[in-house]
Request: fold
Amino acid sequence: MREVWADVLALYGFKSGEYTIESYGSGLINSTCLVKTGTEVYVLQRINNHIFSNPYLIADNIDKISEHIRKTGADCFFAAPIQTGDGRSVVRVEQGYYRLFPFVKSSHTIDVVQTTRQAYEAARQFGKFTKSLSGIDIHRLNITLPAFHDLSLRYRQFLEALSGGNPDRICAVNALIEELKSYAGIVEEYGKIKDNPDFKLRVTHHDTKISNVLFDEEDNGICVIDLDTVMPGYFISDVGDMMRTYLCPVSEEESAYEKIEVREEFYFAIVQGYESYMKEELTPIEQQYFFYSGKFIIYMQALRFLTDYLNNDVYYGARYPDHNLVRATNQTTLLRRLMEKESVLSGFSAAAV
Ligand code: GN1
Ligand code: MG
Reply:
């Protein structure tokens, strides 16, 4: 693998022996490395083209976003990929697709939200991103992953795994399967959203987990990263994934499920941070679905992890045999914890403070 990285870096003018490479980050889909020269640091990524079948669509979206921000003068920074000498922002070497980013100086990422300030800052950055791009013609953006957050499709895929998946696994996790089926009302609600013209399609990030925000040394948000899934979408995708990953003091990897809880003050921080940019943008009906966002995404993620477990881990992979089962159980527990707080949290929106 190291050989290939070297071939890729050569296209950007790097000479062997003048840099070091180390693996970096916690993403499940792409492989990421840090490249260090004596003076500079870069992020080199191999795009998983089993999942993103046309990586050029991602590069084209980033170009369009970049151009829009430049033209409108919006105060929205993001780290665009570096171009090769002949102007390419994605390169193909052997079977792989690669790209290189500058490492934003004095920035860091976090994996678990520890303070409400971090949650507020991250939510604010994602709100700012969508708001800054509100004038773009949404239909110009490519769909990099068709039906990515289509909950109806995810539910159908789950049902398909119940008939075509690993029979031993299906049998062993019957209780979890039944629990997830009992929450299918969340899918029906999504059906209503798709049919409602008051739900707007906007530039949506679709992966707003905390590790996709860069922070400075004082924990101010600098910008959002990982623009692979930026596509037209509903705000519930972005707000929901914030709830999924900021409300709980432990991550989706945690197997001590008793540690899973929903921290109310982090919910308020998400609302305030996101609405600091998006309050005027959201229609009254969308505002009413703020709490639903969390159920929507946490449920979808539980379904996706369990579906993958039943399909022998073909999508997410697994570092140990029951890895995706642990993740699915974790997310189902989080969903339960969130639903327990529905009456306390659902009335709260920045409009009400
Ligand atoms: C994947 O690769 P990563 O970690 O950025 C997934 C997200 C999930 C996430 C769960 C393209 O994101 O939808 O929320 O794992 N991305 C894709 O950790 O499937
Ligand atoms: Mg991602």
In short: Strands lie at 20-23, 31-36, 41-47, 91-93, 96-102, 202-204, 213-215, 221-224, 231-233.
